[in-house]
Fold this protein.
Amino acid sequence: MLGDRYYNKIKEQGYYIIAEAGVNYYEFVDRCAGSPLEAAKLMVKAAAENGADAIKFQTYKARNLAMKDSPGAWDRNDIPVETQFELFQMYDRLGEEEYKELSQYANSLGIEFFSTPFDMESADYLEPYMEVYKISSSDISNIPLMRKIAKKNRPIILSTGASNIEEIDEAVSLIKSCNNRMLTLLHCVLEYPTPYENANLLKIRSLANRYPDVIVGYSDHTKPDAMMDVLKTAYLLGAKVIEKHFTLDKTIKKKNDHFHSMDCDDLRKLKTSLEFIKTICGSDVLGCQEDEITTRNSVRRSAVSLRPIMKGERLTENMVIFKRPGTGISPKEFDSLVGKRANKDIREDVLLEKEDFE
């Protein structure tokens, strides 16, 4: 069934990492003979080799996305472009054939491909090439586009950046009204980059509590920290899907999303960290673990004769001390033996046995 690869990976692995290539590949055209498609493939290969479960792009045409004088919502020190239209026009050259080839290439490398459609046309032509749809935070109020995507009955990942709870409720209700596949909601902050103090990762728990029947994740716009602690914390708070912008070179300045993207080193570090966290989190079943039994027996205490006990003597508390190891009569069982007679002579400093008394 469509989407099984996505669901099964989350179930088996416990998390799902999306390397958000977006349109960052355009800055690597010079590394692969001048072709945007080959540059995009370079990023697919890098994401697959460094531990991502999926590579995601963004599909749009500037003319369908923004008015020519629409102001940018970014820091001009990071991206020295005034309008959204001007920025998007720089990165809208790929079409259906290129995305088809990217999908086939990703599949050949064992990494899942999908792309966020920003208009009706791309939502339709991407359909044969991906099993999962991603809807951007910016389109959570775009009812026509959401409805169109939902009716395709594919798994949907919806980012919730800059959304009020009523808007999220409405979007969830709309999607579920015409789509019976599992929905994924991503906490997200629409601030590029997001200051760490504005990440508000506790919203991940809030989403999980309010929508218990969805998968919850996190789409990150903070600058990668040295130990990837933001994303590790998101996972520990319940994010099963981790989406992070991806680049091959974080030093690229004044271009689109590179300044808050993770690179291959960050991706490997994240993958290794999540596997380690899974290891140390282990099971939530309360009880003595099998690997603790030897130590448990060694450090717990048993009833030990404090002095010689003669055959026929009644056992009293002042005849006993409790010492390691814990392989004899436990202190919690000792009361049941008090007052019983020894059926043999017992030396000092030996483990008492129930069979020694009658």
User: Anything to note?
Assistant: Residues 141 and 284 are 39 Å apart (CA to CA).
